[in-house]
Amino acid sequence: MYKKEDTLACKIAAFLICCLGNLVIYGQSFYNGDLDGIIGSANTPNGWVQVPFGDPVSNATSVGEATSDVTGLTGPYLPTGINGNPYSGNTFTSGVHSYYPPDGQLFREGIMQNVNGLIPGENYQIRFYQTVVKQAAALDSSGSWSVFVDSVLIGITAPTLSSEPYNSNSLPWELRTVNFKATNSAHLIKFLPTDDDLNITLTIDPFSANGIRMGIDSISLVWLQEKPQVNIGNDTTVCEGEILMLNANCLGCSYHWQNGSTSSNFEVTQGGTYWVQVSNSMGTETDSINVLYFTIDKIDLPNVITVNHDGVNDELNFETYFQNCQAFNLTIMNRWGQLVYEYSFGGPPFIGKSINDEELMDGVYFYMISSKENNKSGYIHIIH
Q1: Exposed, middle or buried: residue 264 (CB in 10 Å: 0-12, 13-18, 19+)?
Q2: Residues 232 and 365: beta-carbon distance below 8 Å
């Protein structure tokens, strides 16, 4: 407010209350975006605090020149024109950007709020409505708002030009937007009134003065999501007994799988075709995958091995037949049921030798392939 008077004690108290007592973190939206509060000079809407004197983005010359006002149809001060109609709700916030040479006072009256729950790397849009409030000693007809994320200026809005007279309760409101990319999960968002022509000097005659009082109302935060992208993988073969986890993770998305599940993940335990629809505010995308389970019954070993070292059919590489499935084990027994060979994943090919590295005699041997769930038996004829 123009020419506010504060004692040093009041200024210190105001600073402590503003900066230490009222700063609350709100989650991924502005609390009380309608800026409803109790009409009064140096008041702030519920959930908001002043941008204080001494803040890195404030160039106000004292605490008293850094206090915005909760404004409405009845004030806070009708005689000087600090009043007006809100865009929405019951009140709005207004603040001055002006300079008074006799006292060296520079007024810069803004508000701020800490917003939490942001996703680093994601883009957001701050939306609000602005207007020009013509008061005594601040009668410029056009102005803007400067918006800061922490101490970084992210935008100065296009000016609003008002032809309304001094002390009007028919203020024209205009929508403005400013975009930014979150770098942390919480940011302190600050709004400061800005005279677009930078001619902010007050004069002795309050009705021929420059400087601007700007109004702000209906502040909101929009997550600028992109159209969802989803990839649950290429068609694949899974070994018997294993679990395949499909992951459709997409920030801020909802999910619908082929069986009605709404989780971001889906557990596959049997073969088939699986699909998921991923949706957000920008649209819906679908992806699918065919899963084949490699089971013991699909293993087809040859029944003859000729270990005569001619390079033809001299060995059995079980991993080739097992599709590299680690869950399968194989044992070979002679006709008397004695164990002569045992294989597990990663072992060498079978070349007609026993577990003691002895040549096995010609004849028929019996094998058993086993997993956690099934078994399969057959025979191998060894010929030298």
Answers
A1: middle
A2: no
CATH topology of domain 236-294: Immunoglobulin-like (2.60.40)
Fold of 297-383: Immunoglobulin-like (2.60.40)
- Taking the model in full, what pTM does it have? 0.64
For the residues of 145-163, what is the DSSP string, one character each? EEEEETTEEEEEPPPEE--
Amino acid at 73: L
Contact partners, residue 260, CB within 8 Å, separation at least 6: none
Burial 198-215 (b: 16+ CB within 10 A, else e): eebebeeebeebbbbbbb
Strands 283-294 and 236-239: parallel
Give the pLDDT score at 20. Answer: 32
pLDDT for res 241: 80
Q: For the chain, which residues score pLDDT lower than 50?
A: 1-23
pLDDT digits (tens, 9 = 90+) for 67-83: 999 999 999 999 999 99
